[in-house]
Design goal:
Order of helices and strands: EHEEHEHEHEEEHEHHEHEEHEHEE
GO molecular function, one term: rRNA (guanine-N7-)-methyltransferase activity
Protein name: DNA methylase
Organism: Epilithonimonas lactis
Number of strands: 15
Number of helices: 10
Helix content: 25-40%
CATH architecture of the largest domain: 3-Layer(aba) Sandwich
Keywords: Methyltransferase, RNA-binding, Transferase
Shape: elongated
InterPro entries: DNA_methylase_N6_adenine_CS, RlmKL-like_Mtase, RlmKL-like_Mtase_CS, RlmL_1st, SAM-dependent_MTases_sf, THUMP_dom
Radius of gyration: 24 Å
């Protein structure tokens, strides 16, 4: 592996690719290219550490280590058996393989994964008379197998657990939003820590915590303890410590307010536990408040929230969304508000025309991330009482 010129693939969720690309550029990535649910770039080993530690919208960061064409299973095995696996894996380490197969020649990802596992084990048995073990849950080293027709690409996983596992979520409500999606939504909404932020249906507090981390420029993985690259043979602990120190020295003071409302005391208790785990008690304020009975008391204000919807939590749908629209109009003038919903008819029920609609996925649910601009005075009529498209 050429640690000075790594070819890096950063995976993300649909709709967040451009946000991710901008993050990578700001962190110093070279030759940044946007793909489907991924961004590719180049950098050295230190940059790889920085990406894992700092990038908010990355789900997984992998490095391709081998690429070849195979036209049958025998050639596939032979190519894998001849690869120098001991450059990446010790005989006494454990490993796992994730596979994606899109090929008419090779139909079954499980079978191709098994053949790859056999080739790795046979390589070590032949060379060292020892063999590494498979550990699907907590491997030391994780490989990714990707087969597109005849093209086989093997990558090594630098992240370990998915990067949405930040380390601060100790408890969760029925339907928490993914941390990477939450951060992506905030960045799409333009949150940069200037002004004030409100999540009026905060649940377990993920949007609040991610908003605070952005506002303070706190690295995304500040509270995470383990990364896949820490088990690599070329892991440089001193370099990683230096990168963490430099990033943490950039943390800035936040002078605005970040506030979360919820009507559910249990949800607020869960949010409080997570906020304490993220050491954000002095930055985030929680209130037991019904959004529909609230009035704007923060100026200026950005609002982003994830209201409940039927796939996750049962609600009285039409009435619920109508109340959101009424609250926007009557109590939140001069406010920019964003909400995400898997109900694609939500804009019509809200009764306001969204100024932006962005397609995102919350897990497997297709959603729309909707922007509403509430104006006071002469501009007020621009978005009021217009049925959504």
């Amino acid at each position: 592996m050429d640690i000075e010129n790594l070819q890096i693939q950063v995976k993300t969720f649909f709709g967040l690719e451009q946000i991710l690309a901008e993050e990578i550029k700001k962190l110093g990535g070279k030759n940044v290219e946007v793909k489907n649910r991924a961004v590719t770039c180049e950098g050295d080993l230190g940059f790889l550490y920085k990406l894992n530690y700092s990038c908010r919208t990355a789900v997984k960061i992998i490095i391709p280590i081998m690429e070849f064409k195979a036209y049958n299973e025998s050639k596939y095995y032979d190519k894998l058996f001849k690869f120098e696996w001991d450059e990446f894996l010790e005989p006494n380490q454990t490993f796992a393989i994730d596979a994606t197969v899109n090929s008419e020649r090779f139909h079954h990802s499980q079978f191709m994964t098994l053949k790859m596992k056999d080739a790795i084990v046979d390589y070590f048995q032949d060379k060292y008379k020892m063999r590494p073990s498979v550990n699907k849950d907590h491997p030391d080293i994780k490989f990714h197998l990707h087969i597109d027709r005849e093209l086989v690409t093997i990558s090594i996983d630098s992240s370990g657990d998915p990067l949405f596992k930040r380390g601060y979520r100790k408890e969760q409500t029925i339907a928490p939003i993914n941390e990477v999606l939450a951060s992506g939504m905030l960045q799409l909404a333009g949150w940069d820590g200037k002004g004030n932020f409100l999540d009026p249906m905060c649940g377990s507090g993920t949007l609040l915590i991610e908003a605070a981390m952005i506002a303070m420029d706190l690295p995304a993985q500040t509270f995470r303890r383990n990364f896949g690259f820490q088990n690599w043979k070329n892991y440089d602990a001193e370099l990683f410590k230096t990168i963490k120190d430099v990033r943490l020295n950039r943390v800035r003071e936040f002078t605005g307010k970040i506030v979360g409302y919820d009507i559910d005391y249990d949800a607020l208790d869960i949010a409080r536990v997570n906020i304490e785990a993220a050491e954000m008690e002095d930055v985030i304020t929680l209130r037991n408040k019904n959004f529909f009975e609230s009035e704007k008391d923060l100026f200026p204000l950005l609002m982003v929230f994830n209201p409940p919807y039927d796939e996750r939590i049962s609600i009285n749908d039409d009435d619920f969304y109508k109340k959101i629209g009424d609250t926007f109009k009557q109590h939140y003038p001069n406010t920019l508000a964003w909400l995400i919903s898997a109900d694609l008819d939500a804009p019509k029920k809200i009764g306001l025309r969204p100024s932006r609609k962005i397609k995102l996925f919350n897990g497997k649910l297709e959603t729309r991330f909707l922007q509403y601009e509430m104006y006071d005075g002469s501009k007020k009529g621009k978005y009021i009482n217009k049925e959504a498209e």
